[in-house]
Amino acid sequence: MTLKLGDHAPEIMLPDQDDIVHKLSDYKGQWVLVYFYPKDDTPGCTKEACAIRDDFDNFDKLDLKVLGISADPVKNHKKFALKYELPFTLLADVEKKTVNDYGVWAEKKFLGRKYMGILRSSFLIDPKGKIAKIYENVKPAEHAMEVIKDLKGFIK
User: Fold this and answer.
1) What confidence tier does 1 reach under pLDDT thresholds 50, 70, 90?
2) Annotated catalytic residue: which of 24, 45, 86, 119?
3) Which pairs from 37-40 meet CB under 8 Å and 24+ separation?
4) Is position 50 annotated as part of the catalytic site?
5) CATH T-level fold of 13-154
6) Does pTM top 0.85 for this prediction?
7) Crossing angle, helix 43-54 and helix 143-154, to 10 degrees?
8) C-alpha 35: how far from its chain's center?
9) Cα 121–126–130 angle (5° rounding)?
């Protein structure tokens, strides 16, 4: 499935770091950033999560909910969230349904080796549940500021 701007965002129903199930439809009426990342506690993923954490007051002021998703299990998310004091929700997609629904489970290459993994991508979802912005090939350190800037443009 290839998602486009204006498409209805596929439903998400996954457990968070505290094993509480979240559904995207629970956030109807709010802006939501759904960000997909490859793996807990790896350099790029930590940089991205900490950048969001460090800018979280701005996300909060804009009433933007953040859902981070990887294929790591709940217990890994819990450790990652506690270690870096992450103030947002991390969802465990161990069955890889959501990453497939959003088209971010794909073949990757590293050091000449091919493997399947999560593409670092994000989707800004508007209060009606439609995709307002798609971020591909996200730069971990700059992503939080980019999202804040974009959202401010949408809610003017």
Assistant:
1) low
2) 45
3) 37/68, 37/69, 37/70, 37/118, 37/120, 38/70, 38/117, 38/118, 38/120, 39/70, 39/72, 39/118, 40/70, 40/72, 40/76, 40/77, 40/79, 40/80, 40/90
4) no
5) Glutaredoxin (3.40.30)
6) yes
7) 40
8) 1
9) 80
